Amino acid sequence: SSMATWNFAKSKTRRNLLGSAAAAAIILSACGNSSASASTATTKAATTAAPVSFSLWESHNGGPVGAAVTALVDKFNASHPNITVKVVVTKASSKLPAAIAAGNPPTLAEISHYDGTLVKGGALVSWNSYLKGSSELTQSNVFPSVWTNGLVQGQHYRILASAKVSEVFYNETLFQAAGSHDSANHVGSTCNRR
């Protein structure tokens, strides 16, 4: 899953929400980090800015992931008195087309990894300008495949909220004994043999 910000009608409110949304996402992604420098800087900025409230559509229907997201948002809201993030548990990816068409998308959403049509349709806002000011979320402290995952023509349109590794284990001798020489070569060419 990944976090994305929507490109809805340009307005002063939109700019305020997008700036706050970017700050919130960067801080929420770094809440587990022991360094408080970015959080402190964002807290200072939040206490001098006008109050802002926005929604975060979360796709997990509870359980440990939903509880963790709620706890992170509660911690963020408590430490940023002028920014309020409201978590809405919903099927974000399936409900987004209707919300975008109605002109009422969430500010942030956890969406599917397959959001190319949203980028092509101009529905997402690039995160590049927000990432440049972050000391917590930089290319040097993120795995390369995670960092580049949301890139489209050099622009970050999403930030992965989670990543996983899929493995395939097989016995090459059994593959060959079963007459599946091509399958063994195909699996072996896409995976590191050990």
Automatic annotation (TrEMBL):
The protein, known as: Extracellular solute-binding protein family 1
InterPro entries on file: Bact_solute-bd_prot1 (IPR050490), SBP (IPR006059)
Signal sequence extent: none
Residue ranges that the Swiss-Prot or TrEMBL entry lists as coiled coil: none
Bilayer-spanning residue ranges: none
